[in-house]
Specification:
Layout lengths: L10 H14 L1 H11 L1 H12 L3 H29 L1 H20 L4 H29 L5 H29 L7 E2 L2 E2 H7 L2 H11 L6 H6 L3 H12 L5 H13 L18 H15 L2 H14 L4 H25 L5 H23 L3 E3 L2 E3 L2 H19 L2 H11 L6 H52 L13
Antiparallel strand pairs: 1-2, 3-4
């Protein structure tokens, strides 16, 4: 998947890098799993606690506020505690919140545990890309950085498959009981297993060489650099290069991000807007609400869960395409291809949803429009996965100068979660007003993202992290 070793990185060293990258990316798996597992549970939660679209939107979206908080604090925690220790804390937060979500005594209690789960998600969303970018050789950084997004989409797919399996074991309905708990409770509690796995792997992978050098642990840093870059690498020169950059600057603070453009440096605004556009195209509407959405247009509960799983498979296929292309054709071309494809697919879905015919408490689509809506949704996910899904995380891990990377990545990731929250909390109300109208809005932002990439995003393909500026 990452090709043959380059002259500076032996196959053995590359294998080691792949292992530690994959281990770090388990946080991405949890990120995807815990984010998307709510998709199958939404209907069950709504019926169990007898809540309407506004309150269910708040419960689903509140995890994203926690994610914004987790992303905001993760950079400072990683700079003080180290990357791997921060991963361990995120894993523990995941584990505890999973148990709490499975055993809520009220809708408010469930909201609290989802908020806590969001903190873990936000921490993982920052630490994974930063750690991978810092241990990956430049020639492979794009593809290895893609591991984070691959893990996310695998987590999404596995959550949908587990949801479907649990629902089937419970007789096809998420409010049916299974071993003393309703099916939706088992769905939310199942995240405990990957959380424990994340904790184990975060405890055995090496610390980032850049953090070790910043902490004065030069011997340990040399050992890690030798493991990831090979015996032939000029370790003295690499350590000196990293040390000079790290110790010529203060530890990054949020005030270091200040600049002339509306109070922030231009590169920070670019990171923020990349994050916002990634969410404003409405991708997480698919992963949080698709089961309920397909039910709302006449598809039964069991089939809607299966459709959600098929969408996740398309997401994985698109991610593999991006991983194969990101270091070949570059970041910008992929983003522009994705923006154009998403805009067309979303506009097509909006047209299909505009043909809905009221039928009792639901809306039914004519057969042709129903097929078009399903195909358009899958095409949208494909174009997102092969572009913005992967490339934004790769860019956020590598585009910022060393002196501000952790702080800038935290701000950009926090902006991403806030944008995600805005889309997620608003969708139930928008859908009850006009599902087609919501998708017109998402199509508009997809088209706008194309112009943004064309004029504001710079290529980072093949450049060392120390060259960013």
């Amino acid at each position: 998947m990452v090709g043959t070793a380059s002259s500076g990185t032996s196959s053995e060293n590359l294998g080691h890098v792949v292992f530690i990258t994959a281990a770090a990316a388990i946080g991405g798996f949890l990120f995807g799993y815990d984010s998307a597992v709510i998709n199958g549970a939404v209907t069950g939660i709504q019926k169990h606690f007898a809540v309407g679209p506004v309150r269910i939107g708040i419960v689903v979206a509140i995890a994203l506020l926690g994610s914004a908080l987790g992303a905001w604090i993760a950079g400072n925690l990683a700079d003080h505690w180290g990357r791997t220790r921060t991963m361990q804390v995120a894993a523990i937060v995941f584990a505890v919140s999973s148990i709490g979500q499975a055993l809520p005594f009220s809708i408010v209690d469930l909201a609290f545990w989802r908020l806590l789960a969001g903190v873990g998600i936000g921490m993982a969303s920052v630490i994974g890309p930063a750690y991978i970018a810092e241990v990956a050789p430049p020639a492979y950084r794009g593809r290895l950085g893609s591991f984070q997004q691959l893990a996310i989409v695998l987590g999404i797919a596995v959550s949908q498959l587990v949801n479907y399996a649990i629902a089937q074991m419970a007789g096809g309905r998420v409010n049916n009981e299974l071993l003393g708990l309703q099916a939706w409770q088992w769905m939310l509690g199942a995240c405990l297993l990957p959380a424990v796995l994340y904790l184990i792997f975060a405890s055995i992978i090496p610390e980032s060489p850049r953090f070790l050098i910043a902490s004065g642990k030069i011997a340990e840093a040399r050992k890690v650099l030798r493991e990831v870059e090979g015996d032939e690498a000029d370790l003295d020169a690499r350590v000196a290069e990293i040390d000079a950059l790290l110790h010529s600057e203060r530890r990054p603070r949020l005030r270091d991000l200040r600049g002339p453009r509306f109070g922030l440096l231009p590169i920070v605004w670019t990171g923020i807007l990349l994050s916002v556009f990634q969410q404003f195209v409405g991708i997480n509407v698919i992963f949080y609400y698709s089961s309920a959405m397909w039910q709302s247009v006449g598809i039964n509960q069991s089939e809607s869960l299966l459709i959600s799983f098929s969408t996740s498979i398309i997401n994985i296929v698109g991610t593999f395409i991006a991983m194969a292309l990101v270091d070949r054709i570059g970041r910008r071309p992929l983003l522009m291809i994705g923006s154009a494809g998403m805009a067309i697919a979303l506009a097509t879905a909006a047209w299909a949803f505009s043909s809905g015919v009221p039928s009792g408490e639901t809306v039914r689509l004519p057969e042709t429009q129903a097929v078009v809506a399903l195909v358009a949704a899958h095409v949208f996910v494909l174009f997102f996965a092969l572009s913005w899904g992967v490339v934004v995380w790769v860019l956020l891990g590598e585009m910022f100068p060393n002196r501000i990377r952790a702080a800038a990545l935290s701000v950009a990731a926090a902006a991403q979660w806030l944008a995600n929250w805005m889309i997620t909390v608003s969708f139930p109300s928008l859908a009850s007003w006009s599902l087609a109208g919501a998708y017109v809005g998402y199509a508009f932002f997809a088209a706008l993202s194309l112009a943004f990439v064309l004029f504001e995003v710079k290529e980072t393909k093949g450049r060392k992290l120390e060259e960013m500026g």
